[in-house]
C-alpha cells in the first residue's frame, strides 16, 4: 500500500529509503520497545511467557512480521495491534531530527532521482516517524504494509517490491536504488535486479571510518547514511566543501 503521487512513467531513478533503524539510529532502541509491546500483546491473548516468545520468533521468521502470523492463525484485529504496539511507542520523546540526514536527502538531484520510503510498518507509524524527523517534505511517497488487507505482503517478499515499483511508476528495476538495515531485505531487492541495493550497518558515533567487508548478495555496505553520497555519487548535487 502507498501514499503519495506515483502515477505515470518517469525515467528518473527512485531512491527507496527504509525508515526504522535507517533514518534514525538503532541506539534509540525503538526496536526493543516495539518487541516488548508485541510480547505484551501475545501475553494479552492468554499465551504463557514461553509460548509468547516462541510464537513471536516463529511468526517473525516465517512471515517477516509477527503481525502476519497473528492474522493468519489467530484472526486478530490488525488495527488494534497497530494502536497497542506501533501506536503506543513514545517516538516524540525519543526521536529527533538529524540535520546531516536531512541535508543528504536534500542534496539528491531531483532531476535525476525521486525519493520514496519503503517500510514494513503501517502508514500511521511511517508518517509519524517522517514528521518527527522533519523528512516528510523530502519524500515523494511512502510504500507501506497495508494492515487493512488480511493478505498484505512485506519485505523481503517479491510481491511487496513489485507492487512498490508499480505504484511509484517504475518499470525498469535497474532504476531502483535501495538502502535498508536488514540484510534479507537488501538481498531480495538485489535478486530482483534493483540497480543498487545497499546494506546500512550502523557505525557508532566517534568510530573512525573504515572499509566495510564484502557482503555477498548486496552492492555495498555503509556505516553512515551520508556515505550514500559516495555509493550513489551520480545522483547527488555537487556541493562546495
TrEMBL record:
Source species, domain of life: Eukaryota
Entry-linked Pfam families: Hydrolase (PF00702)
GO biological process: nucleotide catabolic process; pyrimidine nucleobase metabolic process
One GO MF term: nucleotidase activity
InterPro entries: HAD-like_sf, HAD-SF_hydro_IA, HAD_sf, Pyr-5-nucltdase, SSM1_domain
Listed NCBIfam families: HAD-SF-IA-v3 (TIGR01509), Pyr-5-nucltdase (TIGR01993)
Protein name per Swiss-Prot or TrEMBL: Pyrimidine 5-nucleotidase
Organism per entry: Calocera cornea HHB12733
Lineage of source species: Eukaryota, Fungi, Dikarya, Basidiomycota, Agaricomycotina
